[in-house]
Structures are given as structure tokens and as C-alpha cells.
Amino acid sequence: MGLGKLLHDHAEHAEAGGTIDHPRAYEIFSFIAYGGGRRAAFTRIATLARPRAGQRILDVGCGTGYLSRILAPVVTPGGHVTGIDPSAPMVEYARRRSPGNCTYVVGEGQNLPFPDESFDAVVSSLAIHHIPRDARPRAFREMFRVLRPGGRLAIAEFRPPAHPLAARLVGMLSGPAMGHNPRDLLGSLIPDAGFHVEDEGNLPHLLYYVRAVRPAL
Asked: Does pLDDT of 61 surpass 70?
């Protein structure tokens, strides 16, 4: 699949709340898009969740499993990372590269198949815009439900370039997938689900983050 076709499909599926089903092409696009800085960018995202040995972490919209594979060695010994994604090809790709303390399942963020209070942290990178708009409130309520009290939430999303010309170019290439303002995308969804927002801001490589916590009982 060509880069142009991947960008078109990404934009179309993001607008429709669909899935990306071409993991190898997605990995190539990601390598190009981050200019060799992908690992550094996702390591920054991982640190937002403050992972520690022995913890259980859920990666919502895990895609090819890139972020969960960064988290996996941090939670050893005794910890486990679970990734969930609605795309079966992405999950299969992640499983084939899975370290021993990672598990991947096919499923949706708005219908998490996990018990209440079963994770110490929930992370999600570049996935919320793929969830249908009317399902996003439920997705954040589900993340809240599966987190233990005191557990942490770390969300990373695209942000458009500040320069108008650069933002227009990105919009032409990727459509609405990267054209949204992440503050508009997330709005009050996180506090409305019951989380306390600790901080938010910009990261390199056109990323924006929100870090929050489920209040302790």
C-alpha cells in the first residue's frame, strides 16, 4: 500500500470511527512521520503513566503494540501490559511481536471486556479520534471503571501545527485525522467520566497529552 493511500484510508476511517487494517504500511508511515524520533516520542507518552514494576497497564487502541512494547520491560518483574484494538490485523501483528508479559485482544474502547478496578494505569495514544464521536463518553467511563482508585490515565493525541500554512498542508494530506484541535476533541470527556485532570500540554512531534487520575476512595 502506498503512503498516499494509507493517509487517505487513515483520514476516512478516523472520520467514520473505523479501523486501520494495514499494520506493515502503518509502521512504515509512522517511521517516516516521526523522522526517526518515534521511540523517543512514545517513551515520553509511556512515562506519563508513571509505570512501575509489578503494575498492570491497559493500552486502549494499541494498534501494532508499539507503546505497549515500550511499557512491558518497565513493569517487570511481575507486571503485565494488555493491549486492546478493534482491528484484528493490528492485534495479530502485535501478538507476533509480543514480549512475554504482553497480551493483546480484539475489542473496542467503549466496551472493555475487563473487570472493574483491574488495572493500575490506562494509556491511549492516537486512538480517541478513531472512536465514534457518540461513543467517546462511554469509552472514558469504561477506562474509569477498569482503573483502580488512584490509578492513572494518560492520553496522547495529534495536534495540528501552529503555523497556518503547515496546518493546511497536514490537513490536505491526512484530512480530519490530524486536523482536529485535541482540546476540542477531548473537551470535558475526561473530567465528565470522573477523572481528576493533573496536567496537559504539548509534546514534540505534533502530540498533545492529558494526564489524569481516578480519585482514591
From this structure: yes
% of the chain surpassing 90 pLDDT: 63
Strands 119-125 and 147-158: parallel
HSE toward the beta carbon, residue 77, CA cutoff 13 A? 0
How many other C-beta atoms are found inside a 10 Å radius of the C-beta of residue 203?
16
Can you tell me which residue has the cell 501478538?
95
How far apart CA 173 and CA 176 sit, in angstroms, is 9
**With contact defined as beta carbons under 8 Å apart, do 32 and 3 qualify?**
yes
Kindly state the helix (H) or strand (E) to which residue 6 belongs, with its residue range. Answer: helix 3-16
**Model pLDDT, residue 92:** 96
pTM for this model (two decimals): 0.84
In whole angstroms, give the CA distance from residue 129 to residue 180.
9
Cis amide linkage into residue 77, ω under 30° from 0 = yes
Q: What is the DSSP letter of 202?
A: E
CA distance 48 to 154: 6
Closest by alpha carbon to 28, among 3, 53, 10, 50? Answer: 3
In this predicted structure, the answer to whether residue 162 has a pLDDT above a threshold of 80 is: no
